């Protein structure tokens, strides 16, 4: 046996007997009794009941110092998750660990009996024991009632946040649990950084260097920390924040006990969530890293500044704001931030503008109420002149709760999908058109139609990689035989998106963007974000879907409704194209336009492009539309059950625009914002030429809109892009 007894009353003698006769189950040596000691010079270790964790003495890296620590028992390359005496190392192998009454752990120099380290306890028991649990938690409990925990290592983490820990503050005991970095790989001593769940204002996790904040993940919104969306719901571990009057803490729990995951704060203040990969690689794979980039630096752009890694410099002012010190701003000094172009005038009735796609501002000093609606929230912010912004508190089940800010808004960055925040502005600033560098989506007109756009936006994938890696990947893809143009917009079939996102399950939902929810998915091993365009009224779209399969219902969809759908999709696509975060698809959008043209013709005709079979010729829908157009018989394309006479010019115009969108030459296709203008104005349109891919066979090999019968949910029409293969 590894353990011996330093004392020998009769009770301990009994233990000795049991141990030496090995009647004892494997559970025995996960425990130290008051009678036992754990000795470095005997290589004594505790092993947790199922063998996940071990506790013993070790030396980090090249150091010769000795520490008591806990590590993964089954991982060869010793991964230490907790250190007892990190600031009080032993310099030789004389160390002895024991548990003493009334419940203290004691680390002694076995040669001199000098106390090296001990635990502070706030309650006592008569007979304590120390046990290494399978979670990696070392607990000191009452031998007679093990539910009484006197002390646990999970309350005193070192540089690692393990599943089962509560990172946060208990207001009753006043105790705060936080992670603090080590000095280096060779020195376990307390370093300069801490990772905490900050309960001042609405909870957010933060990294501090000493007393200064270096990173704040943004407020918890029920699904993720507003600025840390790479951490998404997954099958390996769950996580969340608990907020009640006694405590506020961030937790994570294993969903699969066979998985090892840990969050470690390294010596330079970077947090990493790692997952053990037990395959041949036998390595820890980073899952989430924070801070990710320059824009994650706390308050980088000052008040009302917004950071984006796409722009140079990273900082700009929120729309309707301007630099406080333009000269300083121009020379890269952003800390003074921005001020309103027009000062507020509360008596006069200020208003609120929605900004979306942002990481919510620092919530220190914020106010919140979980049971208010957004409407009530808006009212209560409007009523209080010092309230500068409001947002929903919890988006995990629709939008609920209320978060109010007072004073300056700091620490914002562009992020997708991001959440919406409503910022107080002078009334005169509201209602004007959008400006160039704006990240605002002022409530887009509600579209009766619904688009489900299966756009794999490789967002998460790209966000995590540095630009060089990204470029390499793009280059690799280009070299793999596919043409340049095909690479630019990844397009996928709806069914692929359904599979990738688990049927757009609530579990995969990352959040709500300006124009619909965004889902996390997994496609060919890559994490993707899928934006699903949606509207509040799904009815028209539902009907439209049925219309393609149901002759009777087809009549319900009158022209105004169809035009609304066309227009809505056009606006939605314009939004997508202009949404700067989606830079992956930003370069060549006119191929995306083609598909839109096909869709327009499908909606007008009530027929599917591929499904069209006409007795007299082999033309598909495009060919048919083109033929009719040339002969000035465009109206014959219109769905036979549609009463369109009062809208004749709009119908003809829509067909014309549809044909322009499907031009063979990409240069001849309009861009989406022109499409919106063309549809809604009476200006003269260019003449279309013969469309590309106008026979049925060709279309199958090219890209086309594809209205799918596979509905993602009962009342959505689903439209996805069919990938050219
Ligand atoms: C723990 O106890 C089991 C069963 O008695 C024994 O086989 C094993 O070697 C012990 N392990 C250690 C590290 O003492
Ligand atoms: C403890 O382990 C070290 C290194 O593996 C070994 O050299 C030493 O002999 C061991 N001591 C005992 C008492 O087993
Ligand atoms: C250390 O303590 C033990 C038991 O309390 C005692 O037997 C031993 O003599 C002490 N050793 C020294 C060096 O004081
Ligand atoms: C116990 O409390 C003392 C005094 O507050 C402190 O110096 C010491 O670091 C604490 N020990 C541990 C292990 O936390
Ligand atoms: C957010 O809302 C969900 C569903 O209503 C609820 O289960 C959860 O506890 C809420 N979270 C917070 C932090 O309020
Ligand atoms: C939170 O809002 C609810 C609903 O408006 C209200 O009944 C409640 O009093 C509010 N709580 C606080 C602490 O303001
Ligand atoms: C506005 O809100 C602040 C912060 O909660 C509060 O201190 C102040 O009394 C409020 N003012 C009014 C007029 O309600």
Give the secondary structure arrangement, pairings included.
Elements (H helix, E strand, L loop, with lengths): L3 E2 L4 H11 L10 E3 L2 E4 L6 E2 L5 E6 L8 E6 L7 E4 L11 E6 L3 E6 L5 E4 L9 E5 L5 E5 L2 E8 L7 E2 L4 E5 L5 E2 L1 E6 L2 E12 L5 E6 L2 E5 L20 E7 L3 E8 L6 E5 L5 E7 L5 E8 L14 E3 L7 E3 L3 E3 L2 H5 L7 E3 L10 E8 L8 E3 L4 H10 L3 E5 L10 E5 L5 E2 L5 E7 L33 H5 L3 H13 L4 H5 L5 H7 L8 E5 L2 E8 L2 E6 L7 H9 L11 H20 L11 H16 L15 H10 L17 H14 L10 H9 L15 H6 L2 E5 L9 E5 L3
Parallel strand pairs: 26-34
Antiparallel strand pairs: 1-3, 2-11, 3-8, 4-5, 5-6, 6-7, 8-9, 9-10, 11-12, 12-13, 14-23, 15-16, 15-22, 17-18, 18-19, 19-20, 21-22, 23-24, 24-25, 26-27, 28-29, 30-35, 31-33, 32-33, 32-35, 36-37, 37-38, 39-40
Helix pairs in contact: 9-10, 9-13, 10-12
The site of one 2-acetamido-2-deoxy-beta-D-glucopyranose has 8 residues, from loops.
List keywords for this structure.
Agglutinin, subunit A, 5 domains, 5-stranded antiparallel β-sheet, 19% helix, disordered N terminus, binds 2-acetamido-2-deoxy-beta-D-glucopyranose
Structure description:
The protein is 19% helix and 28% strand. The protein has 725 residues and is α+β, with helices and mostly antiparallel strands. It contains 14 helices and 40 strands. It starts with a strand and ends with a strand. Helix 9 runs antiparallel to helix 13 (672-680) and helix 10 (590-605) packs antiparallel against helix 12 (648-661). A hairpin with a 5-residue loop joins strand 18 (187-198) and strand 19. It folds into five domains: 1-154, Bulb-type lectin domain (Agglutinin, subunit A); 157-292, Agglutinin, subunit A (Orthogonal Prism); 295-440, no CATH class; 443-550, 2-Layer Sandwich (Phosphorylase Kinase, domain 1), CATH 3.30.200; 552-725, Orthogonal Bundle (Transferase(Phosphotransferase), domain 1). The strands form eleven sheets. A five-stranded antiparallel β-sheet has the order 1-3-8-9-10, with no helix packed on it. The protein has a five-stranded antiparallel β-sheet with strand order 30-35-32-33-31, covered by helices on one side. It has a four-stranded antiparallel β-sheet with strand order 2-11-12-13, with no helix packed on it. The structure holds 2-acetamido-2-deoxy-beta-D-glucopyranose (NAG) (7 copies). Residues 369, 371-372, 376 line the site of one 2-acetamido-2-deoxy-beta-D-glucopyranose.
């Amino acid at each position: 046996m590894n353990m011996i007894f330093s004392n020998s009353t009769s009770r301990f003698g009994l233990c000795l007997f049991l141990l030496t006769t090995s009647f004892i189950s494997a559970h025995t040596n996960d425990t130290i009794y008051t009678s036992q000691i754990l000795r470095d010079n005997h290589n004594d270790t505790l092993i947790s009941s199922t063998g996940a964790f071990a506790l013993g003495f070790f030396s980090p890296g090249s150091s010769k110092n000795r520490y008591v620590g806990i590590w993964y028992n089954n991982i060869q390359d010793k991964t230490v998750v907790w250190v007892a005496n990190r600031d009080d190392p032993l310099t030789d192998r004389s160390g002895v660990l024991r548990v003493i009454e009334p419940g203290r752990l004691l680390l002694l120099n076995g040669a001199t009996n000098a106390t090296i380290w001990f635990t502070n306890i706030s309650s006592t028991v008569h007979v304590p024991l120390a046990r290494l649990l399978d979670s990696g938690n070392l607990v000191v409990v009452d031998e007679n009632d093990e539910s009484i925990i006197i002390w646990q290592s999970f309350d005193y983490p070192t540089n690692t946040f393990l599943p089962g820990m509560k990172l946060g503050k208990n207001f009753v005991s006043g105790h705060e649990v936080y992670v603090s970095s080590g000095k280096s790989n060779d020195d376990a001593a307390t370093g300069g950084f801490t990772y905490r769940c900050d309960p001042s204002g609405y909870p957010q996790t933060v990294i501090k260097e000493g007393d200064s904040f270096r990173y704040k993940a943004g407020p918890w919104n029920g699904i993720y920390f507003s600025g840390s969306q790479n951490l998404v719901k997954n099958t390996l571990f769950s996580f969340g924040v608990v907020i009640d009057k006694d405590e506020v803490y961030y937790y994570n729990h294993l969903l699969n006990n066979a998985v090892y995951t840990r969050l470690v704060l390294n010596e330079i203040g970077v947090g990493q969530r790692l997952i053990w990969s037990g395959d041949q690689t036998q390595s820890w794979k980073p899952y989430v890293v924070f801070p990710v980039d320059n824009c994650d630096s706390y308050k980088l752009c000052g008040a009302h500044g917004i950071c984006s890694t796409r722009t140079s410099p990273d900082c700009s002012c929120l729309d309707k704001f301007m630099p406080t010190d333009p000269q300083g701003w121009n020379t890269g000094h952003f800390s003074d931030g921005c001020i309103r172009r027009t000062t507020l005038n509360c008596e006069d009735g200020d208003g609120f503008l929605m900004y979306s796609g942002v990481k919510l501002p620092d919530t220190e000093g914020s106010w919140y109420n979980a049971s208010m609606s957004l409407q009530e929230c808006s009212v209560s912010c409007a009523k209080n002149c010092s309230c500068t912004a409001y947002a929903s508190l919890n988006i995990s089940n629709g939008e609920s709760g209320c978060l109010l800010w007072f004073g300056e808004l700091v620490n914002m960055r562009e992020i997708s999908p991001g959440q919406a925040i409503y910022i107080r502005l002078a009334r005169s600033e509201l209602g004007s058109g959008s400006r160039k560098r704006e990240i605002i989506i002022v409530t887009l007109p509600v579209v009766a139609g619904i688009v489900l756009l299966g756009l794999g936006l490789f967002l998460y994938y790209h966000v995590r990689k540095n630009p060089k890696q990204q470029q390499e990947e793009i280059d690799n893809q280009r070299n793999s035989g596919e043409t340049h143009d095909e690479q630019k917009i990844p397009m996928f079939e709806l069914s692929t998106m359904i599979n990738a996102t688990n049927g757009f399950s609530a579990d995969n939902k990352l959040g709500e963007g300006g124009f619909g929810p965004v889902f996390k998915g997994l496609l060919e091993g890559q994490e993707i974000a899928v934006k699903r365009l949606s509207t509040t009224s799904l009815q028209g779209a539902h009907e439209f879907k049925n219309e393609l399969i149901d002759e009777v219902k087809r009549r319900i969809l009158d022209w105004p409704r169809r035009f609304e759908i066309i227009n809505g999709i056009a606006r939605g696509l314009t939004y997508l194209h202009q949404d700067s975060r989606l830079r992956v698809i930003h370069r060549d959008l006119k191929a995306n336009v083609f598909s839109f043209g096909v869709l327009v013709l499908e909606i007008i005709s009530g027929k599917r492009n591929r499904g069209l079979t006409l007795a007299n010729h082999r033309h598909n829908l495009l060919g048919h539309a083109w033929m009719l157009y040339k002969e000035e018989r465009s109206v014959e394309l219109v769905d036979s059950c549609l009463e369109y006479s009062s809208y004749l010019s709009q119908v003809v115009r829509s067909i014309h625009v549809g044909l322009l969108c499907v031009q063979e030459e990409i240069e001849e296709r309009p861009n989406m914002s022109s499409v919106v203008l063309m549809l809604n104005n009476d200006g003269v349109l260019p003449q279309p030429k013969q469309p590309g891919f106008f026979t049925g066979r060709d279309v199958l090999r090219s890209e086309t809109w594809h209205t799918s019968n596979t509905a993602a949910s009962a009342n959505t029409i689903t439209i996805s892009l069919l990938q050219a293969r």
